[in-house]
Specification:
Elements: H1 8-14, H2 16-24, H3 43-47, E1 51-56, H4 58-75, E2 79-83, H5 84-87, E3 98-104, H6 110-121, E4 125-130, H7 136-140, E5 143-146, H8 159-179, H9 184-195, H10 197-206, H11 209-218, E6 223-228, H12 232-247, E7 250-255, E8 272-276, H13 286-299, E9 303-309, E10 321-325, H14 334-351
Parallel strand pairs: 1-2, 1-3, 3-4, 4-5, 6-7, 6-8, 8-9, 9-10
Helix pairs in contact: 2-8, 2-10, 4-8, 4-12, 8-9, 10-14, 11-14, 12-14
The protein binds fructose -6-phosphate.
């Protein structure tokens, strides 16, 4: 059943181009419009929304963090992202004009389910992004957008995550479309860029041998740091989570801009630091700032592992290891930059002789609070 792979996780990583394509299938119209009739929320209600919450746990929460950047940019609606386990204990401000997007691969995560029930009690509209047909979370939600990743067996989420991110883009673009789009041209262009994602993911997967080799050289480390900025920040968090859960190595993700506010003190001779570099075309010169961060940590002894898009030459002088990903629009970049981090964590865990599919102390779906 592992289709020739040593682990389900490797198989599921390899399936990602297909999973992303299936999640887009039938949902992008010929004229660059979104076709999401399956999302059964009335257009009138969607037009009245003045706030979005995205609520989820673990890896799905990281997808939510990415959603915030995209949805706010495309719709100009404020978006808050919250851990499901914190959400309802905080007395969040919710009413009929709030859209709560809950994200859950399994559809059975108790923390997320309890958050959704709380949102419904407060009369918010709830849209689920889910991979498991007919599971509890979509059943109790007002509407559902299914990811079409197919069954995910490995405990660590990979194709589940990538398709959640894609589904979040669809929700953001759909909201923009329903409400009248500020950046109409940009949205139509993004729809074309979405169509290119499956091939981009496939391209990343073709060049993973150096990442596996690098992983083998990292298997004895005690700690790894992950830096990112803008949508690269949630990618850094996701890379760190994958490493913790699979390899049992301490790992932390940071917003690169926060480094100088304390965490840079962690950098020591040889500390491996993975940096997710934003596209050189991203807004507000974040690219240049991240390049400076790489320079800073390297000057303090870090061994730098840099993920940057093809053609970005600025990073070359400061990268001890350079992992290339295809050129992708800024907001969509997580779909390609996450993949090497999945492979890295998987290979480090395998090198350490660990059970990649069944990490200790973890269950695939967490049905207790
Ligand atoms: C990490 C992982 C978990 C899940 C989290 C939520 O690899 O898989 O962090 O993402 O437990 O699970 P779902 O998406 O099923 O609600």
């Amino acid at each position: 059943e592992k289709g020739g792979y040593d682990w389900f996780m490797l198989k599921e990583i390899a399936e990602q181009p297909r999973a992303v394509a299936d999640t887009l299938l039938g949902r992008l119209g010929e004229a660059g419009e979104l076709v999401l009739d399956e999302v059964r929320l009335s257009y009138e209600d969607l037009r009245g929304i003045d706030k979005v919450f995205v609520v989820a746990c673990g890896t799905a929460y990281h997808a939510g963090l990415i959603a915030k950047y995209a949805i706010e940019h495309w719709t100009r609606i404020p978006v808050e992202v919250e851990l499901a386990s914190e959400f309802r204990y905080r007395d969040p401000v919710l009413d009929r004009s709030t859209l709560v997007v809950v994200i859950s691969q399994s559809g059975e995560t108790m923390d997320t389910l309890m958050a959704l029930r709380h949102a419904k009690e407060q009369k918010a509209q709830v849209l689920a992004i889910c991979n498991a047909n007919g599971s509890t979370i979509p059943r109790e939600s007002d509407a559902v957008l299914y990811t079409h990743a197919g069954p995910e067996v490995a405990v660590a989420s990979t194709k589940g995550f990538l398709t959640q991110v894609v589904a979040c883009y669809l929700v953001g673009l759909f909201l923009a479309q329903v409400r009248g789009v500020k950046y109409a041209d940009e949205v139509a262009a993004i729809v074309e860029d979405l169509r290119a994602l499956p091939d981009a993911v496939a391209t990343v997967l073709e060049s993973m041998e150096p990442v596996r080799e690098l992983a083998r050289s990292l298997a004895g480390e005690n700690t790894l740091l992950f830096l990112g900025r803008h949508v690269g920040y949630p990618v850094a968090l996701e890379g760190a989570l994958k490493l913790k859960e699979l390899a049992y190595i301490h790992a932390e993700g940071f917003a690169a801009g926060e480094l100088k506010h304390g965490s840079i003190a962690l950098i020591d001779q040889g500390t491996p630091v993975v940096v997710v570099v934003p596209s050189p075309r991203s807004r507000g010169s974040v690219h240049g700032k991240v390049v400076s961060n790489i320079q800073e940590v390297r000057a303090r002894g870090a061994r730098t592992i840099v993920i940057a898009e093809e053609g970005d030459e600025d990073v070359v002088p400061y990268a001890d290891h350079l992992i290339r990903v295809p050129r992708t629009p800024t907001l969509l970049a997580p779909v390609v930059t996450t993949v090497p981090l999945q492979v890295l964590a998987c290979e480090i865990a395998a090198t350490r002789g660990l059970d990649v599919d069944q990490p200790r102390n973890l269950a695939k779906s967490v049905t207790v609070e």
